[in-house]
Specification:
Elements (H helix, E strand, L loop, with lengths): L11 H6 L2 H20 L6 H12 L1 H11 L5 H11 L11 H19 L3 H18 L19
């Protein structure tokens, strides 16, 4: 008697039926996990990790990353990005409409590559995004923990 969930058909045909919004939903998680994993190489506090993560996954940073990637995208990837960018969605107060739409398109691209299991292409694009983010990092550099990994409070 409950609501029955629609499941996409198994195999590659189901993936093409997913909307760009669904791809962006997955791409958001994939990209955030990528950023978190990359940041764990730093010996810093969790609070610093969080601030650094937010600076990389916020809409304006993802929009800038997508603009950097656009010239090198395949025709299929660029078409997906255009469709996702043109979605009509509510925009959070802390992002511009343009940045939010571009960040949604970026996430849809990441989600698409992940679902297609095109991990080589996904790794290529994420490496390019990482290099771009490293060059244009707008937050202060991470401050490593003192030796021993313990923080000393200033009293």
């Amino acid at each position: 008697m409950g609501h029955e969930r629609r499941r996409p058909p198994s195999g590659g045909e189901g993936l093409t039926l997913l909307s760009p919004r669904h791809l962006a939903y997955l791409g958001d998680a994939v990209y955030e996990l990528h950023v978190r994993k990359r940041l764990l190489t730093e010996a810093v506090t969790v609070e610093q990790l969080h601030r650094e993560k937010v600076s990389k996954v916020k809409a304006s940073a993802q929009a800038a990353a997508l603009r950097q990637l656009m010239p090198g995208l395949t025709e299929h990837e660029a078409d997906l990005v255009r469709r996702a960018r043109n979605l009509k969605t509510a925009v959070p107060r802390n992002a511009s409409v343009a940045d939010y739409r571009h960040s949604t398109a970026f996430e849809a691209l990441i989600g698409h590559l992940y679902l297609q299991e095109d991990f080589v292409r996904l790794a290529e694009l994420l490496a390019e995004v990482d290099a771009f983010m490293d060059r244009t990092q707008d937050s202060s550099p991470l401050t490593p923990l003192p030796r021993g990994g313990e923080l000393k409070e200033n009293l």
